[in-house]
Amino acid sequence: MPKKVDHEARRQEIAEALWRIASTRGLDGASLRDVAAEAGISLGRLQHYFRTRDEMLLFALRHINRLAADRIRARIEALAEGPGGEPVREPTPREVLRACLSGMLPLDDKSRTGLLVSAAYFARAVHDKTLRAEAENGIPQLRAFFAGQLRLAADRGELPPERATEDEAMLLISTADGLATYVLLGVHDPETALRLLDLQLANLFGAERA
């Protein structure tokens, strides 16, 4: 009986091979042949899953974004869990925002690799309409989610109502993006970036209550 092939898993393996190339030397030099060699398959086999380089790049970008979102979602869910893993409470808006923002920083090897790959995509997206559309569509959604958390915090009396705006949400996103860049460049270490992020949240929400 022929062995069943998990096509989605194979596509993800190819995407991860592309990430390994992108995290060390960027995307410009990553041809289909290079990625096939990195993935340990033939060029013909790779083209069975991706007909063009652009198709492969877009899939890989969306896949790495999904993985990052999954890690952040797990952080948020962990906030609500008791010692045995059972849900015990709803995380506060401030906790949700911190989990999201810290998940945007390169605090470990996995997130660092993800951000190196994202930086390679960013450099290419400046001149690539298809890749740029991912940011154009994704950032407004993230901004709206953050603004919703800020409005919830204001409703709970945890934030001045005048600061529960999309502009404040965008400033938080920009802070995390800037700090992530500085960690990748070696300007800050991860601990400093996290401390500065907490300082920004304290400026917005006030000092954390004991």
From TrEMBL:
It holds the Pfam family TetR_N. The keyword Glycoprotein does not apply. Keywords: DNA-binding, Repressor, Transcription, Transcription regulation. Residues 8-68 form the HTH tetR-type domain. The keyword Transcription regulation applies. Residues 31-50 bind DNA. This is TetR/AcrR family transcriptional regulator. It comes from Streptomyces mooreae. The lineage of its organism: Bacteria, Bacillati, Actinomycetota, Actinomycetes, Kitasatosporales.
